[in-house]
Design brief:
The mean pLDDT is 80. The protein is an all-alpha fold. The chain has six helices and no strands. It is elongated, with a radius of gyration of 15 Å. InterPro entries: Glycosyl_transferase_4, GPT.
C-alpha cells in the first residue's frame, strides 16, 4: 500500500516542464489500455467464464475517459502553455492510474510501467 501512495504523491514534483505530467500520464494510460486489451483478447477464445475479465473491463472503464479528458489538456499544456496543470491533475492522474492497476489485477505490470517515473 505504501508504494501506491508513493506513486500518487510523486507526480506533483514533475510540475515545471510543459507537457511532462500530462504526456507521461498519457503514455502510462495508453500502455495500461494496451495491456488490458491484450489480456482480454488472449482469453477471449477460452470457453466458460474467466474471472479477471471483468477486472480488465473495469480498468478500461477508468482509463478510456481519463485518456479522452487528458488529450485536450496535453495539447493546451505544450509549449507555449495555455493551461496550467497543477496539483489537482497530478493527484487525479496518480489515483486513476493506481486504481486502474489495482482494479485490473495487474499491479505488478503497473509498477513495471511506473518504473521510469520512480527513478
Amino acid at each position: 500500500a505504501l508504494r501506491w501512495d508513493y506513486l500518487v504523491r510523486v507526480r506533483p514534483y514533475m510540475i515545471g516542464i510543459n507537457g511532462l505530467e500530462v504526456g507521461q500520464s498519457m503514455v502510462l494510460a495508453l500502455s495500461l489500455i494496451l495491456n488490458d486489451l491484450l489480456q482480454l483478447y488472449r482469453h477471449a477464445q477460452q470457453a466458460g467464464t474467466w474471472p479477471p475479465y471483468e477486472s480488465h473491463l473495469m480498468s478500461l472503464y477508468l482509463l478510456l475517459p481519463f485518456v479522452g479528458a487528458s488529450f485536450p489538456l496535453m495539447v493546451a499544456n505544450m509549449y507555449p502553455a495555455v493551461a496550467f496543470v497543477g496539483d489537482t491533475y497530478c493527484y487525479l492522474a496518480g489515483m486513476t492510474l493506481a486504481a486502474s492497476g489495482i482494479l485490473g489485477q495487474c499491479s505488478k505490470t503497473t509498477l513495471l510501467f511506473f518504473g521510469p517515473q520512480i527513478f
